[in-house]
Amino acid sequence: xxxxxxxxxxxxxxxxxxxxxxxxxxxxxxxxxxxxxxxxxxxxxxxxxxxxxxxxxxxxxxxxxxxxxxxxxxxxxxxxxxxxxxxxxxxxxxxxxxxxxxxxxxxxxxxxxxxxxxxxxxxxxxxxxxxxxxxxxxxxxxxxxxxxxxxxxxxxxxxxxxxxxxxxxxxxxxxxxxxxxxxxxxxxxxxxxxxxxxxxxxxxxxxxxxxxxxxxxxxxxxxxxxxxxxxxxxxxxxxxxxxxxxxxxxxxxxxxx
Amino acid sequence: xxxxxxxxxxxxxxxxxxxxxxxxxxxxxxxxxxxxxxxxxxxxxxxxxxxxxxxxxxxxxxxxxxxxxxxxxxxxxxxxxxxxxxxxxxxxxxxxxxxxxxxxxxxxxxxxxxxxxxxxxxxxxxxxxxxxxxxxxxxxxxxxxxxxxxxxxxxxxxxxxxxxxxxxxxxxxxxxxxxxxxxxxxxxxxxxxxxxxxxxxxxxxxxxxxxxxxxxxxxxxxxxxxxxxxxxxxxxxxxxxxxxx
Lengths: 257, 245
Hints:
heterodimer, A: 11 helices, 2 strands, 70% helix, B: alpha/beta, six-stranded mixed β-sheet, four-stranded antiparallel β-sheet, 9 helices, 36% helix, globular
């Protein structure tokens, strides 16, 4: 075997540039929240097993109620009405023994990302011209109202979705969809999608840990963005490879299309 | 002398109450070779992740370099940098460990953070590629390599910052016999050079080459035994009970 080089056998005294920069943990937290959603919420059934109000209802009725609420939410135009729906969601969560802290703090980052980001551009005059609200930033009053409405709609819809998923086991959810007349093929596809999505997310979580273990100095935002971009590419590549393997495994078991 | 790592009654569960490890206590001294043995799902990887400061116990404590490992400790940039520089981890699923676009970039990731000069980084890349006999992979994308090649690139990327401690999770899984032999010799050479090796595995064949002492985890994710490697491997009835043979 080639002998070890001097730098590897010497005392580990390599200096590193001191840094007082705090770590930008928003990215990590959001990724963790997404990973937890799959591990802890969708598949662990921690809350679905509790004896709360929504847990007592059948999956079919919950799916129908959630779908109706989704439609209702998309037609509501007043922020107050949407805020009322949000309050109702929190109240139902309480009655279903889901800790409010869990629903707000842990799911909050996901809602913020999915709700706030798409809504942000609507605040500015180049998208929503009108009476100025914060002139220096180019935020207009109608723009702010639109963004708020959009955000509240996303938050309410996400809340309804979380309630349904948290209080129903994945199996019951799929059976409920089947009971509502959805074809067996589609339900099976959904089941597989959930299963493999969880696998990919678990992989992403591991990658985050691995990256963390090799990160000596806090990353610059640009580096973090670069990593995320590379991860998206990698995830795409893995998803395609996994899809191909699953399809071949199905074919090997007699699946024909 | 205080142990390098000291774990006291540490328990950890993943989100959703999925158990990781229950009430584990162990100590690792500088320059030691220690194995953590256990069947699949016994909590070996969780224990290593705790030692690597990636997850933190909900009960008990984990100390390294005389300081308790906690989220708060890692918010201190100097401790974080010192710890990440000194402790390298090789993950069981090496796939997750490689994120750069080329093997050379992967190896350079750590040294760049140390602020090393370009020539020094090049030297380290060349040395590691040569030692692990993977020079032809230099500009290849890590995602396109075989499992054995990925494992070699992963260890090269960990070693590039010259850590004092190596946490190895099933380090030889997926390696062909020759690569496995060479890899074990390589790890032995690193130990002779003073590195502390902590290896989590259920492959008893590699244990005598990689450890002098062992801790055993049961399938209930509890630490059930510890001792010299000869003593542990000699007790076949207990090895069967622990589902290790």
